[in-house]
Amino acid sequence: MALSNEKLVAAYSQMRLIRAFEDYLHEAAEENNIFGFAHLYAGAEACAVGVCYHLEQTPQDIVTSTHRAHGHFIAKGGDVVRLAHEIFGRRDGSGGGKGGTMHVADWAVGMHGGNGIIGASAPHALGAAFSAKFKKTGGVAVAFGGDGASNQGAVFEAMNFAKAYALPVVFVLEDNGYAESTHKTYTTAGDPVSRAAGFGIPATAVDGADFFAVIDAAGTAIERARTGGGPSFIHCDVPLFHAHFEGDQETYRADGEVAKLRADRDCLKNFRDRVIGEKLVAEAELDRIDESATQQAAAAIAAAKNAPQPPSDALYTDVYATY
Q1: Please, are residues 104 and 47 in contact by the beta-carbon 8 Å criterion?
Q2: CATH number for the domain harbouring residue 239
Q3: 239 lies in which domain range?
Q4: Percent helix, strand and coil across the chain, each to the nearest 5
């Protein structure tokens, strides 16, 4: 699909902010400034932004995520300052500092959060899609999941139910090749696209390092969902630029593997090369965005490091929906 200069700039700005944020967070993790395990999203920015481009940044459209949720949070319109505060367990975080890195959420923009249960995003999104259809809100739900999630029974149950009831949900498999430290060739039989197609769900595979391929596939899938055509499945082959979690020694990766991914499959570099080559966005404008994103990310994390923690009486709130 053809995008205006303004929309290309907006998309690159989001991708660049995600990258800058995760790179600074990587540094903070090395300083032991983060509570819990941090799973960084750097390398997959084109998938999150390309999909969320077609979603409203309101509660009408829902995104459910994984333990690797920071990129989805920003792509869905979440505030990067509140994100940083949440990761550092601070009072002004998006969840009051109680959720931390694996449970970032902002329901005001339709980001229903990350979680540490492999494959849980699929049934969560299914419920949101069921609600949207029967309340006739016009909303769409997107479930992001990793290749490890593709082997979970709950994901197949969600696909079956979604197809049976023609629910407005899109299942997005972000396949970085590893389920934690195990390569998918040891764990996964068959092709993910064929698995989804087995339920009669329209399914496609795209290069997750190509923003333009993702935005085209997501546009078709989300329009199908929004107009009553039921679920879709998108298999995004994405690179992972950092370890499974911060502190992971990455002994399962070959020497030079990450360096090659950064050289050949960087979605930001691919985006820049294309839009500059086709004279869609000036190189100077992209450089300005790079600088701005770096400043935003650095400021957000610096502010979060020294922000106040939640008060002790906050332990007794947010436990039940009603009291």
Answers
A1: no
A2: 3.40.50.970
A3: 5-303
A4: 50, 10, 40
Cα gap 141→129, rounded to integer Å = 5
In-domain check, residue 320 = no
**Cα–Cα distance for residue pair 54/64, rounded to 1 Å:** 15
What's the confidence (pLDDT) of residue 179? Answer: 85
Q: Are 307 and 85 in contact (CB under 8 A)?
A: yes
For the chain, what is the domain count? 1
Instruction: Please tell me what DSSP assigns to residue 86.
Output: H
d(CA 89, CA 68) in angstroms, rounded, equals 17
Q: Specify whether the CB–CB gap between 53 and 11 falls below 8 A.
A: yes
User: What separation in angstroms does the CA of 240 have from each of 62, 93, 142, 172, 236?
Assistant: 25, 26, 21, 16, 12
Residue 309 falls inside a structural domain: no
Residue 316 within any structural domain of the chain: no
Mode of pairing for the β-strands spanning 232-237 and 141-146: unpaired
Nearest to 269 by CA among 228, 241, 302: 241
Residue range 194-252, pLDDT digits in tens: 999 999 999 999 999 999 999 999 999 999 999 999 999 999 999 999 988 888 888 99
Residue 248: inside a domain, yes or no? yes
Range among 66-70, 251-255, 312-316 with highest mean pLDDT value: 66-70
Which pTM does this prediction carry? 0.95
Q: What is the DSSP letter of 253?
A: S
Q: In which element (H, E) is residue 52 found?
A: helix 45-52
Q: Which residues contact 94 (CB under 8 A, 6 or more apart)?
A: 73, 78, 79, 82, 83, 85, 86, 104, 105, 106
Question: DSSP 3-state assignment of 182?
Answer: strand
